[in-house]
Amino acid sequence: MKMHTSSKLRKEFIKKWVKGLQICCSSKKNMDILERKKKIKLCADIALASAKNETTLWSIALISEAKKDDENKILVDNLLGPESRFKPRMTNRQMIACHKRVRSKKILKKSRHVCQKMKKMGPPKSNLAAYIAKKLVKRRTQVLKRLVPGGESMDKFSLIKEALDYILSLRIQVDVMRTLVNANEVLNQSDSKIYN
Amino acid sequence: MEKREETCTELFQFGEESEIQSLMSVVPPPETGNSFTALLELPPNQAVMLLHSPEETAPDNFTSPVLLETPNSILPNSSPNNFSLVKQEPVDSDSVHNSSPNMSDPVISKSTKRKEREKNVKSAAKKSKSIANETDGDKLPYVHVRARRGQATDSHSIAERARREKINARMKLLRELVPGCSKITGTAMVLDEIINHVQSLQRQVEFLSMRLAALHPNIDINLDNIISAESGSLMDGNGNFAGMVSPPLSNQIWQPDGLTPQPLWGVEEMNPNFITPENSLLSYDSSRSSVSLHTNQLKMEL
Q1: Residues B201/B217, Cβ–Cβ less than 8 Å
Q2: How far apart (Å, rounded) are the C-alpha atoms in residues A174 and A154?
Q3: Phi-psi region of B248 (alpha: psi -120 to 50; beta: other; left: phi over 0)
Q4: pLDDT-derived band of residue B150, with 50, 70 and 90 as boundaries?
Q5: Residue in A90, A24, A16, A10 with CA at minimum distance from that of residue A50
Q6: Helices (H) and strands (E) in chain A, counts
Q7: Distance (Å) from the C-alpha of residue B69 to the closest C-alpha of chain A?
Q8: Structure letter (DSSP) for residue B287
Q9: Eight-state DSSP code of residue A125
Q10: pLDDT band at residue A196 under the 50/70/90 scheme
């Protein structure tokens, strides 16, 4: 079952990646290597995310991140195609309001945390280790939130689920790209054989 | 019921705890309090049951006792018998891992955000949302959690505990996924591994795209490669495409300037019954027919 969905995802990804590269290339010629790399990676990321077809939060977040950049917008729109039902989930104002809310929550949390810390300078010793454990986990979840696209606005529970899915999809992406690179190397070897 | 009582007494030891032991000399007994470690006492089968219960049509074990509403007869040990109901959203059927619903009720989520440092042993703090759902396909909004002996019976903490159990069940899935994680005990270390894994995958993507960019003067030439590679992978699994790939790719030599954007001939027509790369090459439009002849010549030479 897993294999089936992953090979389907793989094909979708390849299709969309090819399409994106074509669009990229038709728009601009003679890019330098860094630009090319950026475009390739961008196409790959967007292809991966759109192959998910909005079933996961991270893919939606990735696409909306890409759309924010104006020069990418055209590419993304073309790539998603006429069948794209994708609309930005929130309008700009809502997004700003959401950010504000998140920030004020954070400030509240932090102040409360500091307050509690001050109060409980001599914490119940029995809880000290647990407290440290909690802190460790918390720090790591913060890092994970930064890594997974769109992670900041997820709660711990969905973050784990999204991380799972993200890892799987990243693996597919890496696999396809590596296959391609190997193919090129084979080509280069056969090239040199012909010329020699 | 009996099984659950037995499992109440099991304990998990954490590698995390031992790490902290080296720092501190105090090790709390894991049974007490709402600590994270206490929550992870729940043995995996029970956690998995909780995880899967919304999926199976009827966790009858859970719903029926609640309907009866006579807790005293069922669990003599758990002193204030509190049944707290945690609302869950319907299952996302598409997800690969059959994961259970993720968002809890806003009331509960607010309460779980509070850090609880002390036990509140209240008696009879029942929550008043008590619609026990029947076997309604995959929509089971409530998971019934029992308060265990010696633990806080506050409805909030029960809800929080249920949530944590779900999280831990998911963590187990994650641990199976990430290589080398199943040996590690303790959430923080597992998270470490996961973070490393994600970071390394992301770095690999960067690196590979750099290599691809370096290999070709322009992006277009990638297309042939991709298509061939894809057909190769379609034909015989993943790595073993070298033999397939070299003949079709040889036409690249004849196109020093790269392709003008071709219509997506191959990709659209590609289906699982895709025959051979050679056939696909021959279906190029006429401007490239000379190219395919060359490729045949090359094949013979090779």
Answers
A1: no
A2: 25
A3: alpha
A4: low
A5: A16
A6: 7, 0
A7: 30
A8: G
A9: G
A10: low
ipTM: 0.77
Q: Which amino acid is at B82?
A: N
Q: How many degrees, rounded to 5, is the angle at CA A126 between CA A120 and CA A127?
A: 55
Give the whole-angstrom CA distance, residue B74 versus residue A58. Answer: 44
Residue B128 φ then ψ, to 5°: -105, 20
Smallest CA-to-CA distance from B276 within B242, B239, B240, B234 is with B234
Q: Which pTM was predicted?
A: 0.50
Rounded Cα–Cα distance for residues B107 and A174 (Å): 41
User: CB of A136 within 8 Å of any CB in chain B?
Assistant: yes
Give the number of A-B residue pairs with CB atoms closer than 8 Å: 252
Q: At residue A186, does pLDDT exceed 60?
A: yes
What is the residue type of A140?
A: R
Residue B14 near residue A134, CB atoms below 8 Å: no
Share of chain B above pLDDT 70, in %: 19
In 3D space, the residue among A40, A159, A12, A191 whose CA is nearest the CA of residue B218 turns out to be A40
Cα B144-B163-B23 angle, rounded to 5 deg: 130
Continuous H helices in B15-154 = 15-23, 36-39, 44-52, 60-68, 71-74, 106-113
H/E run at residue A186: helix A156-195
Q: A164 near B70, Cβ under 8 Å?
A: no
In the numeric block, which tokens belong to residue A171?
A: 């693996």
Q: Does B164 reach chain A within 8 Å, measured CB to CB?
A: no
Q: Across the interface, which of B21, B36, B174 has its CB nearest the CB of A160?
A: B174
What 8-state DSSP symbol labels residue B18? Answer: H
For A40, nearest residue in chain B (alpha carbons): B209
Q: Provide mean pLDDT across the span A4-31.
A: 76
E strand or H helix that includes residue B142: strand B142-146
φ, ψ of residue B273 to 5 degrees: the values are: -95, 25
